[in-house]
Amino acid sequence: MKKLVYCALIAVCLSTVALAQTISLTSPSNGATVGSPVTFTATANGGSHPVSAIWIYIDDQPAIKVQTASLNSSLALAPGSHKVVATMWNSIGQLASQLIHITVSSTVTPASSSQYQSNFTATSNYLANSSPSVMDGAILFTPQEIMPYFSNLAAIGMTKDPNRMPQVVAWMNWYINHFNWPDKWGLYGTVYDYTVSNGVAIPTGDADSTDSYAATYLTLAWNAWQSGNPEARSFILGLNYQLDVIGGVIVLTQQSDGLTWAKPDWQIKYLMDNCEVYRGLRDLASLYQNAFGDSAKAAWYNAAAQRSLNGILTMWQNGKWAYYKDGAGNMPAPNLASWYPDAAAQVFPMLQGVLSPSDARSQQTYANFNAAWPGWPTLSFNSQDPFPWDLVAVAAATMGDNSRVATYINSMQGKYVNSGFPWPFYDAEGGWFMRANNYMMGKGL
């Protein structure tokens, strides 16, 4: 009888001992060199209490959170060394952590280079052949339309191909030669959309925006200058006044909060447009500093870019970006289940360099975007939107997400490249696709 009582007491005592909480980060291993995206796997034990959450911190910034006792998630990380901390909490706030260090490689698999070069060349040829010489340098959206915004994006991609620089310069000249002086809003240096009939370009008297058209031209000019092409540099050196006029189009619609209207009679401040504005202003400042040696003008446009950045940052909503701000200051939260504009707009701060890839907001945004649209590299968004959205692959490239970029390019090969680029592939998509393939060849964006 005493023996039975003794055993019962032992059992009771064991049942009341507090078990230690633990976490085990099983992948990647400490000191590993890995490709991006990095797959993290971890399991946690809350000890005497259930696990409430597991967090992965990258370089002391929160990056992944699950509210389960196990984690299996992928995260795109920029090349270089990173500190990784996995931390678990149990239901009474007790925690356990594990620290490792990893290196993310930027190496592109050499065996893929021929594939990417073939895509790059095919797309470059598509863009060259889709704009007949009779159009005097215009890059066409469709055989019947010129949309300068899309043409600018196409030409930025074409700057990556030395063989296309004469056409890039011809397009830049076309844009300048079609300045409105003034336009219907009283602005100087804007450009309308055009229809095309029998080889003649006819202005529509309107444009989708004034801010993005101007901004993307400025980014094109900087990319053309960076190409080092002598013809392009000579042409740009003759645009000191015209570039200032284009910069003025942006500044004249920039409001007290640093954000620009889409156009004077459409007073909505879009996240996408304003990210392009930020990039364009920075690029114009770089042109004035490096091409013209005008430090004062560079400082002036950098100050405008800083105002733009400050305005954009007010659109951050704890893991997501508001995709527009209206005249009353309202900033609706995005519905990430809706591809355009809500979800697609999320990649623009990364795409246009508003924030660095390592910034916690970039990491959170990209993780949330991929969680909402895990199948985007295989064009799953075509269930809602028919266009290929090559810019998302370029945004992924800025995040060092080579795996998803490669999958996306494979999808594009099957649907567009191998079929001669059928509609809805168009000029701007071609510019972005050239940049994605150029990146995968290790030549940058």
Q: Can you characterise this structure?
A:
The protein is α+β, with helices and mostly antiparallel strands and 445 residues long. It folds into two domains: 2-104, Sandwich (Immunoglobulin-like), CATH 2.60.40.10; 110-440, Glycosyltransferase, CATH 1.50.10. It contains 15 helices and 13 strands. The chain has helices at residues 2-16, 113-129, 148-158, 165-177, 211-226, 230-237, 240-251, 271-290, 295-313, 339-345, 348-351, 360-372, 390-398, 402-415, 427-440; strands at 22-27, 33-34, 38-45, 51-58, 61-66, 70-75, 80-90, 95-104, 145-146, 194-197, 200-203, 269-270, 324-325. The chain has a five-stranded mixed beta sheet. The protein has a three-stranded antiparallel beta sheet with strand order 1-3-6, with helices on one face. Strands 9-10-11 form a three-stranded antiparallel beta sheet. Strand 10 and strand 11 (200-203) form a beta hairpin. The longest helix has 20 residues, at 271-290. Residues 1-16 have low confidence and may be disordered.
Key traits:
alpha+beta, 445 residues, three-stranded antiparallel β-sheet, Immunoglobulin-like, 2 domains
